């Protein structure tokens, strides 16, 4: 049995579905409990308290956790396919100035908000939505542009164009376990 803590972006992506399916095929008695946890800080706390065996975290994390780097996840501009910059190699941050913008309502971690706060270019907030999938659908329909993580945006279900920013924005994702704690065999297999 593996109890795995993850925030909405990881759970919304197809990133680890193949790995879980492969592990279950090899070990049919293994079970997973995927727990949606709101923030990286809460995931870390759940690992420390033993509520989950492991969890996906954003690096750097506290020194009392053992981490294994998995991937770099970029913040990307999400554009409708007919956007003038759809064919550009990157999305210049300065192009955010006064762009019609669809913002994802963030309840934890606030990565997009922090990014927008650090830039001097401010988009025109047109809509605020509570779902990544709503954001992608609205961008696809040409209602504005958005910003989200490449894990979500690189989704073949939506006809959108994802562009890295000319000023790179990313997070490093790792899987974490508690240090100095015996890790269950099933969890070791997953990690």
Question: Can you put this structure into words, describing what you see?
Answer:
The chain is an alpha/beta fold and 191 residues long. Helix content is 27%, strand content 31%. The chain has helices at 8-12, 17-26, 40-48, 111-118, 132-140, 150-153, 185-190, and strands spanning 2-6, 32-36, 54-59, 65-79, 100-104, 124-129, 145-149, 161-164, 170-178. The longest helix has 10 residues, at 17-26. The model has no long low-confidence stretch (mean pLDDT 89).
Mean pLDDT: 89
Q: What is the distance, rounded to the nearest whole angstrom, between the alpha carbons of the first and last residues? A: 13 Å
Structural class: alpha/beta
Work out the number of β strands: 9
Keywords:
191 residues; alpha/beta; nine-stranded mixed β-sheet
Tell me briefly what this model is:
This protein has 191 residues and is an alpha/beta fold. The chain has 7 helices and 9 strands, in the order βααβαβββαβαβαββα. It has helices at 8-12, 17-26, 40-48, 111-118, 132-140, 150-153, 185-190, and strands at residues 2-6, 32-36, 54-59, 65-79, 100-104, 124-129, 145-149, 161-164, 170-178.
């Amino acid at each position: 049995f593996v109890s795995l803590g993850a925030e909405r972006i990881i759970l919304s992506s197809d990133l680890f579905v193949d790995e879980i399916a492969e592990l279950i095929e090899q070990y049919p008695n293994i079970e997973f409990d995927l727990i949606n946890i709101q923030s990286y800080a809460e995931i870390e706390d759940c690992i420390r308290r033993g509520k989950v065996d492991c969890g996906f975290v954003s690096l750097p994390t506290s020194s009392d956790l053992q981490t294994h780097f998995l991937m770099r996840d970029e913040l990307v501009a999400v554009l409708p396919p007919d956007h003038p910059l759809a064919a550009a190699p990157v999305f210049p941050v300065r192009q955010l100035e006064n762009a019609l913008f669809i913002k994802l309502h963030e309840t934890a971690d606030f990565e997009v908000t922090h990014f927008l706060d650090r830039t001097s270019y401010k988009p025109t907030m047109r809509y605020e939505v509570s779902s990544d999938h709503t954001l992608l659908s609205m961008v696809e329909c040409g209602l504005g542009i958005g910003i989200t993580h490449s894990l979500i945006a690189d989704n073949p279900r939506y006809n959108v164009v994802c562009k890295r920013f000319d000023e790179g924005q990313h997070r490093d994702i790792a899987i974490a376990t508690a240090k100095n704690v015996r890790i269950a065999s099933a969890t070791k297999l997953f990690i």
